[in-house]
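lol forgot to send this yesterday, sorry. struct tokens for the thing we talked abt
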């Protein structure tokens, strides 16, 4: 089935996953690109149009998106992803899961600061609570840099979970040994790592292992690829372009569909500030790739970006 960019295709078309005690549609929404035009997280970013961003968020929920990924450090001059989410969606639908990240932080001017120590994580959690207007956070991912122990930092978040400020915990940008370490402290419902078609094929085994453990794998930059926070660069392998042309979809949609085919526990969080791109992303959940297409794309993936 080739997806059409219409309002009749909703996020439910990709199926659901049980994220802790919450059921979410596998097509979600990432808020990183919502606050600015052009490259995300840039100190000199041009703020997005506030009204348009709010319309995109409301349209996402109308299209069945019930898993939104955000962070307090997703902001540009004049725009905050958390504030936009609160303004657009509060009072929140009962089925909406808002996932946020802690660890990184930025100064008011946009410069990244050192990652939070365990004693500073509570302040970051409380900042997200204030910005989102919540008395608890549905899901908090601890963002990691490097291969060091996560025990002390994850333990601090586990204490906040016990206190009722956090419902579920996850990890971001991690390695398998860090997941095992965290699981010995508290339940982990998701792993959020960079991954996509041709991006980090060395993570294939880790992705599958998460599925065997009942843990969601939530790839970021699955469409942007090597473009990262700058977005799609425009390049694509000829095999990708040929299949996309044959199916009548864009290369970005094909990349997203391939990501969803990696396992029923894989949750996509494509982000955009463009209503048309939003509809196209959601519609991709209805795209089913056949064996020959998946085999051709597997060759691209193993070749690397």
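and heres what i got for the seq, position by position
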């Amino acid at each position: 089935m080739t997806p059409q960019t219409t309002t009749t295709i909703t996020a439910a078309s990709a199926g659901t996953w049980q994220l802790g005690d919450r059921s979410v549609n596998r097509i979600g929404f990432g808020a990183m690109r919502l606050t600015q035009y052009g490259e995300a997280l840039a100190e000199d970013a041009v703020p997005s149009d506030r009204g348009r961003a709010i319309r995109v968020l409301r349209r996402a929920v109308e299209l069945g998106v019930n898993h939104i990924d955000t962070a307090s450090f997703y902001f540009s001059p004049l725009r905050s992803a958390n504030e936009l989410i609160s303004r657009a969606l509060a009072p929140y639908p009962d089925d909406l899961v808002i996932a946020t990240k802690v660890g990184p932080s930025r100064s008011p001017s946009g410069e990244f600061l050192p990652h939070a120590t365990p004693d500073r994580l509570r302040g970051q959690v409380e900042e997200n609570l204030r910005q989102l207007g919540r008395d608890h956070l549905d899901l908090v991912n601890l963002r990691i840099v490097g291969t060091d122990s996560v025990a002390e930092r994850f333990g601090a978040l586990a204490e906040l979970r016990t206190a009722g400020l956090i419902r579920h915990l996850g990890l971001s940008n991690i390695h398998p040994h860090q997941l095992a370490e965290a699981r010995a402290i508290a339940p982990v419902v998701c792993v959020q790592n960079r991954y996509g078609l041709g991006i980090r094929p060395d993570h294939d085994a880790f992705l599958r292992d998460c599925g065997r453990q009942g843990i969601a794998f939530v790839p970021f930059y699955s469409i942007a690829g090597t473009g990262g926070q700058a977005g799609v660069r425009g390049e694509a392998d000829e095999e990708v372009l040929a299949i996309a042309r044959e199916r009548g979809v864009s290369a970005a949609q094909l990349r997203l569909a391939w990501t969803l085919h990696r396992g029923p526990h894989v949750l996509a969080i494509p982000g955009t500030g463009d209503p048309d791109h939003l509809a196209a992303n959601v519609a991709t959940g209805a795209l089913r790739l056949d064996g020959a297409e998946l085999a051709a794309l597997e060759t691209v993936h193993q070749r690397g970006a």
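Residues 227-232 have pLDDT under 50 and may be disordered. anyway ping me if u want another try
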